[in-house]
TrEMBL record, chains A, B:
Lineage: Bacteria, Bacillati, Bacillota, Bacilli, Bacillales
Keywords, ordered alphabetically: DNA-binding, Repressor, Transcription, Transcription regulation
Start-end of DNA-binding region: 31-50
Keyword ATP-binding: no
Designated name of the protein: TetR family transcriptional regulator
InterPro entries: BetI_C, Homeodomain-like_sf, HTH-type_Tx_Regulator, HTH_TetR, Tet_transcr_reg_TetR-rel_C_sf
Superkingdom, natural source: Bacteria
Amino acid sequence: MPRIVNHEKKRKSIAEAAWNIIKKEGTEKASIRRVAIEAGMSAGALRHYFSTKDEMLLFIMDYYLEEGKKRSQSKSWSENPLQAVEEVLLELVPIDEEKKIETSVWWILALQSLTSDTLKEKKDEMTNGTYELANSMIEILVLKGILSDSINVKLEKSRLAALIDGLSIHALLRPDVYSPEKVKEVIRYHLETLCNESQLN
Amino acid sequence: MPRIVNHEKKRKSIAEAAWNIIKKEGTEKASIRRVAIEAGMSAGALRHYFSTKDEMLLFIMDYYLEEGKKRSQSKSWSENPLQAVEEVLLELVPIDEEKKIETSVWWILALQSLTSDTLKEKKDEMTNGTYELANSMIEILVLKGILSDSINVKLEKSRLAALIDGLSIHALLRPDVYSPEKVKEVIRYHLETLCNESQLN
DNA sequence: CTTTTATTAACACAGTGTGTTATTATAATT
DNA sequence: AATTATAATAACACACTGTGTTAATAAAAG
């Protein structure tokens, strides 16, 4: 009976409009009204697709995380497991302009999740990503027998996750000190210290 | 000629009022009007001491950083340099409720500094803290001859700073996974890996 | 007692997120 | 083809926000 429009498609187009604003002017400029205008609709119309702002922001993050996943899946990783791990970890760190924006939005949302009720529910889901990926990476290295025997696997997982997110935030806030090259260097250095000397080329 | 009031004292009392709100309800609830009421004055009066909200927030951070410094200066550090370094680093990480609040406000402000013009100027000053402290700690360990010969001092500084801030943010966002004990464990573990085996007790 | 000026209060303004209500448009039913 | 049900949209109202401006108050100095 009703006129039918592709709900999900419209949400995506809204997300893209919002992203354009965020890219240029930051998260807090992406108000519902501004995004609505950018997306070519009224604020009330937008509210029909996202009943709350946090909902919109969450969708945006999910959407762009998906995009990122697709990107990394289509990527071909190195044969050398150590190098492959390094490449995966580099995906988590803002080494180019696009990832910089994604990362800053990400951290802002993550910190907002401490006080916003809407975001609170998704907090763990949001913040778990790096931790799980770090775990996987360590496990891969363990399976491949590359890791030095003296390491504590459990602690290495926690350490790697923290290091990556620390680098992520430093690269964001102090790009002069933590340049993409520097970040890469630190990650490589860290991985090297985990390994048997004999495994290094 | 004019009535005289202690400007700085009033700013501090405002800062404390704001801090009370932030502690209970988060940064974004600390609006000028709310803080003014909490401090027992009108919004216009508050504006006389802080002409902008960012200015107020910056003062609050400075104020509480000073308090933190005083606290750590009055503290007595261990004789064992490795242990002393560990204790200093633990000061940077949200292992108790008070530091949790300080840290979350800190990160929120730091990330806002990416888009807010007022905060932008203070960005480096704000974000440099951990980096410089990490540098000092590594240098102390170098001077004491505790560090293993195989390490790259420069990279270790960057790595430590990133690790500490990463732990800081993880302890904030995932206190279930990164409990105070876990954080301590990771820091200790990291320091141990930097050292000569012979130096460890 | 008057003058001077720091301090305070009271608004106005544009912007925000969030709701509610009315209107439009369209697919299905009669 | 006319009617109807309802998704989609628009247009408000509301209580906030930060930021200004402008007038009133209070107290120290002449």
